[in-house]
Amino acid sequence: MVNDLSGEKLTESNIVALPLAGGPDDCLNSVAEAVCEQLSERPAADASAFVHAFYAALPPENLAATGDKTLTAMALAQWHFVQERAAGVLKLRVYNPTKEIDGWQSRHTVVAMLNDDMPFIIDSTAAYLAAQQLTIHRLIHPVLGIARDDAGMLTQLNSASVKGGADLESCVLIEIDRCASESALMELERGLIDVLGDVRAVVTGWKGMLAQLADTAALLQHKPPPGVPADEIDEAVAFLNWMSKNHFTLLGYREYDIANVAEGDFRYQVSPDSGIGVLRDPAVRPLGAWSDKLPPEALEFYASPNLLMITKSAKRSRVHRSVAMDSVGVKIYDAAGRVCGERRFLGLFTSTAYSRSVNHIPVLRRKVSHVLEQSKFTAGGHNQKALEHVLESLPRDELFQISVQDLLALSLGVIIAETMQQTRFFARRDPFERFVSCLVYVSRDRYNTDLRKRVEKVLAAAFAGTCQSYAAEVGDSSLARLHFFIETTPGNIPDYDPAAIEERIAETARSWRDQLNTEIGEQFDRERQ
């Protein structure tokens, strides 16, 4: 089995078998005959095989509801579409089909794509369409074995097992919400070209990025930077090796040159021609744009013995999943032991990074060990077990990014909140001041969408930002956990008082019964005076 960049199968569709023994159903036989009757330039066997492959995954009820005439016209249009494609080039058409031009019509807009078969085509396309608030009504995606001549013309359609010199091609037809104007169709086409350009750059650059990951781990191991603790180096190497074993979907790589122009003042710039994948364009700034002078938190990293900086990208991924990308920066040292560069890997942690115990993940296991040690709790005691539970259940992205000191304070705060059933608020500023990560604990019984929106407004106002994303977890605990990423403007995060924000959140989460009890208590105090 061949594995792709994320540990799953390399092709997004299994090999598409052309008609199986026993023959296709009457509907597809009828459609194949109708298509062949309208063709004269190619043997009927190729066109018939194409029809069966094209509709192989379409449910029988969908075939029946569509009708033979429309199925015939759709297949015929797509058959003409696959006749020519230049090697290594995406062929794309976004259109509203009409009987006069296309032989069929639809209430929906059609996206037709022909490309080299590669990972991430379908999920990246679907994510982009969802981001444009366009619903997919039908998706057809056979993978075909196609042989072409030097001019890109189809010469033979084989099974998808790459026989007779054929290459695998991804043949896609998607029906989406109708785009009424020509400008909307063109804009959608441009967007899809950009997305699929990123997909190709990631897939073709994957081996290069994997080689850089291995080279960086070897560099740290065989030429350890002076002055950096051995356990820090060992854990960084283990983490990079762990990433390479299908725990991190590599999307981009880039190198930076760093100069220490003054005590604690680092300036850096992109190393020419070092970008791969989504970082191939040096103008792309994955961590956002800022002035030459870095924020204090970022300067602390470059001046510290820590080798890794794990954070979130300012850019959402256009490949695989439409989420903020994960960024892993590795400091590089010169012979004198000075920081002289950084190697940055951009991508997405895979599902195993979120599901496995923290004790099996390099860097996280070390943080957890330090927190347990610094807590001074008795080994095997109730408090330590409670702390271990909190560390396993905290959002994994937070664990990757937070410092040991802040993790200890957060974990102990969560234990107190759950014991006292209190509303609590915890904030962590991004080192580059692009966002503030906010964890909010409120009563599970009071949590609902309206409360989440009200808390979101409190946080957006406190940090002069907007909510980039949120996640809510309502489990067995008496408290529900809300995790907000508030997007902020670098250099313009207002001064804030965590206790005051927590009080505002508690106030907005109070029920009418809480308010009545407070009023009764205040009345009692007044009567005693």
Annotation keywords:
529 residues, alpha+beta, six-stranded antiparallel β-sheet, 17 helices
Characterization of this structure:
There is one protein chain. With 529 residues, the protein is of the alpha+beta class. 41% of the residues lie in helices and 23% in strands. The chain contains 17 helices and 16 strands. The protein has helices at residues 26-37, 44-54, 60-66, 68-81, 99-102, 121-131, 182-222, 230-244, 296-303, 351-355, 364-375, 382-393, 396-401, 404-420, 449-462, 498-509, 512-528, and strands spanning 91-95, 109-116, 136-140, 143-148, 154-158, 167-176, 248-262, 265-270, 276-277, 308-316, 324-333, 339-349, 424-429, 435-443, 466-473, 479-487. The strands form three sheets. Strands 1, 2, 3, 4, 5 and 6 form a six-stranded antiparallel beta sheet that branches. Strands 7, 8, 9, 10, 11 and 12 form a six-stranded antiparallel beta sheet that branches. It has a four-stranded antiparallel beta sheet with strand order 13-14-16-15, sandwiched between helices. Helix 7 (182-222) crosses helix 8. The longest helix has 41 residues, at 182-222. The protein is globular, with a radius of gyration of 28 Å. Residues 1-24 have low confidence and may be disordered.
